[in-house]
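HUMAN: You are asked to prepare a plain-text protein record giving the amino acid sequence and the backbone structure tokens, both parts labelled.

ASSISTANT:
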Amino acid sequence: MKKSLTYADAGVDIDKANKLVDTIGEIAKKTARAGVMSDIGGFGGLFSLNLANLERPVLVSSTDGVGTKLKIALMMDKHDTVGIDLVAMCVNDIIVQGAKPLFFLDYLSMGKLDNQRVTDIIRGIARGCQLSHCALLGGETAEMPGFYPDNEYDLAGFAVGVVDNSRIIDGTEIRVGHKLIGIASSGLHSNGYSLVRKVCFETLKLKIDEHVPELGKTIGEELLTPTKIYAATIAALIKDLPIHGIAHITGGGISDNIVRIVPQACSILIRDESWDVPDVFPFLQKGGNISATEMTRAFNMGIGMIVVVPDHAVLDVMQRIEALDERAYVIGEILDCKEAGRRLIWD
């Protein structure tokens, strides 16, 4: 008699997945905040919008992933920080418009469920949500045998926030003479890792656990440093200070991201020796013989966020940022485009 096949025979263990949901639910509860109305495990997450303090509420959303930084997590077999990266890449995109993060959802897919690995990933996501002051409202963990190579997985995330229409930060109030304040990154964040891996593991032929004197740690430890989440910092700045533009420095670096928020009539002057560049960037530049121009487009070069403020507010903004235990630098200013002659100037 022919054997009756089950879903488990095909590589999908439903019972194992259901047990995992219970574990994830307990982790998610630690991120709960006012407005969350359902537990993990339902068909959809419910969030009550208590917006009495907003006259014209606007929802702001973003989706992103961690990219090939996941390869580093796999090489190190360390998976408890990539969830922070995931939340950071989404939340940092919505706060630049003045939004307050409300909730986050994730999508995790792998060939075969590994309960410990999934738990570590979700703990990281929950930690990212706590740092962002938002709720982990739900998600999906998909077991897809035959689709992913052994032990590999992918992550995507979705963040939703809210801002009053009258307080949306869109760069339209940026004027000539305004100053650019850069807030330090924690390192590479989650961009440029295809180039990073090529330099480190193909050109320099480093081992993931190899100690690098220039960095004071192993290459794996450096490359897996979590992306900084700026939600609390930006919320403190926009509360009562004149912040007219904010740029999240992600793929494309400073060059490609700052122009996204500055009006076409303006030029942007960046003083490229006005901040402390973390050691990982000159290490990669030297190791890969990468041009300065390519570096500034592939990496954040030590600046994770840029805020644009009137000249008279610079001191207040700098003091507020530093009081929040962040490092800040005045890295440039806004010029008249006709007088400057070009859109972006590196000095």
Remarks:
- The longest strand covers residues 153-164.
